[in-house]
Amino acid sequence: MATILPTPRLWLVLALGIPLALGGAVIPGLERFVFFFDVGLLTVWYLTGRQARTWEVARVTRVTDPVLSVRVKNVVTLEIENLSGSSMTVAIRDEPPENCHAEGNEFRIFLPRRERLKKKYALTPTSRGEWEFRGLFIRYPALLGLAQVQKMILPPTPVRVYPNVKAIEEFELLKQTGHLNHLGMRQSRQKGLGMEFESLRDYNEDDFRKIDWKASARRGKLVVRNFEQETNQGVVVCVDVGRHMLGEVEGVRKLDHCLDAALLFLHSAERAGDQVGLLTFNDRVESYIAPRRGKTQVARILESLYDAQAEPVQPNYIEAFSFLASRWKKRSLVVVFTDAENVDQAGMLTVALSQIRRRHLVYVVRVSDPKLREFLAADIDGERELFDQSAALWYIGDRKRAEAALRGAGLNSLEAEPQNLAKELVTAYLRVKRLSLI
């Protein structure tokens, strides 16, 4: 629906009639002239505006990335085509989804006759899930410039917001250029380690432990064995979507930090040629995707995770890992995202994981809060600082005892702050592959 609005020019012309109306006190009948003048002016305003409502002045196409990432800037491109027979200046406002902060989504732009222009702005979603652009509006002048018309030219459009997919793009770029260390990922410089024999080659000041003595005796010179990294191994990510993941770290729920790390980790495993799968659970199993290879598998997992939300219920670890044990027998790397804050919670987790620990290599991944480190480093100037530091020490002590309980049960424990979680996990995965632990 189009709306007719006044312009500053209309208000200016109407204002010119004020002195004339006041002059009616000196010249009888002048105020009547002003009245008819104003009525005529408003009639012209309405008629020109009504005519302009029928105009199709521009066509706008909104182009976004195929996948919008949460908590990072996404680029939205508006392709604007002037359909009118003349140049004009228009105002455009693209109404973003409710969960998004937009920068530059409202602007004025000069459109040359029959030309196409592009305008970009930044969109930062604050939460995942299904949302919608609330329409794109254009405002343009009518004839004589007394009226302007505002109309919606793009209807509300649904859009999905996913975990931070842009981190994968950064990962791939750094991987291609050999600069993964910029993300803090430590790749081993040892080559030729693995489980699958590939070939023999001449010894060239390599590690003497890689010398194949029998082959060297046959050839009459030192040769070493090359091994290629084993592929097609199983990797299963288990995500707790119960009450433990409702807590926030740096204003973001722990679940979201874990999903960002899980996505980058699964992408890394898929690129390494491994089978990747997913299990989400709270007081019951919410979703299960059996491990498979290929980019389409990561896409399936992404579709399953984009709207996952933590529920205020106690996670049923025993049911979740019993389910996994019955569905997936092949030895695999199982990564469990949850949060054991004390020894009791760690005990429940270790009992449940005993069902799969003998068959699989298990990592328990937790998110730590940088504020705890800040509390410990802060100067104590009063009772408030003393209380904060004491509480932080107590909480950290509980978490360390929980970690000791996990390790004591034969589980691998990984805890990192949000900005380091993904790189620490990928580094651990690369180490597991290098040492052939699965």
Structural overview:
- The chain has 438 residues and is α+β, with helices and mostly antiparallel strands.
- The chain folds into two domains: 1-162, Immunoglobulin-like (Sandwich), CATH 2.60.40.10; 234-434, von Willebrand factor, type A domain (Rossmann fold), CATH 3.40.50.410.
- Helices cover 37% and strands 30% of the residues.
- It contains eleven helices and 22 strands.
- The strands form six sheets. A six-stranded mixed sheet has the order 19-18-15-20-21-22, with helices on both faces. A five-stranded antiparallel sheet has the order 1-11-10-5-7.
- A hairpin with a 2-residue loop joins β16 and β17.
- It is elongated and about 120 Å long.
- It starts with a strand and ends with a helix.
- Mean pLDDT is 88; it is low at 187-194.
Describe the structure concisely for a colleague.
This protein has 438 residues and is an alpha+beta fold. The protein has eleven helices and 22 strands.
Per-chain topology:
Elements: E1 3-6, H1 8-22, H2 30-52, E2 58-64, E3 68-69, E4 74-82, E5 88-94, E6 100-103, E7 106-111, E8 116-125, E9 129-133, E10 136-141, E11 147-154, E12 157-162, H3 166-176, E13 196-202, H4 213-219, E14 223-228, E15 234-240, E16 248-249, E17 252-253, H5 254-271, E18 275-281, E19 285-292, H6 295-305, H7 317-327, E20 332-337, H8 343-357, E21 361-367, H9 370-377, H10 383-408, E22 412-416, H11 418-434
Parallel strand pairs: 3-12, 15-18, 15-20, 20-21, 21-22
Antiparallel strand pairs: 1-11, 2-4, 4-8, 5-7, 5-10, 6-8, 9-12, 10-11, 13-14, 16-17, 18-19
